[in-house]
Design a protein that fits this description.
Blueprint (H helix, E strand, L loop, with lengths): L9 H19 L3 H20 L3 H24 L17 H19 L3 H6 L6 H9 L9 H31 L3 E6 L7 E5 L4 E3 L4 E4 L2 E6 L2 E6 L3 E5 L9 E9 L3 E5 L2 E6 L2 E5 L2 E6 L2 E6 L1
Parallel strand pairs: 1-13
Antiparallel strand pairs: 1-8, 2-5, 3-4, 4-7, 5-6, 6-11, 7-8, 9-10, 10-11, 12-13
Length: 296
């Protein structure tokens, strides 16, 4: 869901940022009435936003809040650090996962105030999500209201940030393609695609409907072999419609020193800085500084 999340929607981004600001104000409030008022506003904004998204994306956010947001909360408690990282500028359009770390820990801190026994209920497996539990704990009551000028400014900033993200995606892709040095292409063709076996979800950027730029780690494989990229940039092109989980048709690395290539009886090994690839029943072709490995 992270790779198909609607990060291009300025409307959803503005709603998310208003929700985050309501959480921030709730945690900063000195009076419990105000804390509850802003917390209800955050929940209400989330309900509006989730109603405009596919259920898979709300499930992704809630799941990340449970897994990573609560881990962040436990870390805060252990370090006696009460402040959650909810910056006034919020997070970038594509920083969905990073934002869930913060929103999850914020919801947990609010549950500490309004449902002190919440952790025992979660341990028992009866609770489904932090925000629904907080909504139940808050009950009906007043919701705080943002100034119209603040809402307008948030919407304008969200639109500008989405446009800036798209410009940055184009720049990164151009820089990737223009890197001097050798290029390695692993092409699965029409055979079995390469399947994701590991990647770093905090160091990826979607470049289009089926392309993902991995900036730190990626492992792909199929019945014929495996490749691993570490501390290097790789561009994966999916079979589609999902950029990764229906399989990867093509993987490209650029800006390499001359790779070591071994081709013995159709078994191909490629080694370069940040890359090792080993495949049976493959062929290798060279075109200048481009090495193309085609999988049967």
């Amino acid at each position: 869901s992270l790779f198909t999340y609607p990060i291009e929607s300025a409307e959803l981004l503005a709603l998310r940022r208003l929700e985050t600001e309501a959480l921030r104000r709730s945690l900063a409030a000195k009076i419990k009435h105000d804390t509850a008022c802003w917390a209800r506003k955050a929940i209400a904004l989330r309900e509006v936003r989730y109603a405009r998204m596919d259920a898979a994306y709300s499930a992704y956010e809630r799941g990340t809040e449970l897994n990573e947001g609560l881990a962040t909360y436990v870390e805060m408690r252990a370090a006696s650090r009460p402040d959650v990282d909810l910056p006034a500028a919020e997070f970038g359009p594509a920083e969905v996962r990073r934002r869930a770390y913060a929103s999850g820990s914020a919801l947990a801190l609010l549950l500490d105030q309004f449902m002190p026994s919440w952790s025992a209920k979660f341990e028992s497996g009866n609770a489904q999500s932090l925000d629904v539990s907080l909504s139940t704990a808050l009950g009906p009551g007043n919701e705080c209201v943002f100034d119209e000028s603040f809402v307008t400014q948030t919407e304008q900033t969200a639109l500008a940030d989405v446009i800036a993200m798209q410009v940055e995606q184009t720049r990164l892709l151009e820089n990737f393609e223009k890197k001097p040095g050798w290029r390695v292409v692993i092409d699965a063709g029409q055979g079995e695609p390469l399947w994701p076996q590991g990647f770093d979800p905090l160091n990826v950027m979607r470049m289009g409907p089926i392309s993902v730029l991995h900036t730190r780690f990626l492992r792909l494989g199929n019945g014929g072999g495996q490749l691993e990229v570490l501390n290097a940039e790789a561009l994966s092109e999916g079979v589609g419609p999902h950029p990764l989980f229906q399989g990867v048709r093509r993987m490209v690395l650029t800006g390499l020193n001359e790779p070591e290539v071994s081709n013995k009886n159709g078994s191909v090994t490629i080694r370069a800085q940040g890359l090792i690839a080993q495949f049976k029943k493959a062929s290798v072709a060279r075109d200048g500084k481009i090495i193309i490995v085609r999988l049967e």
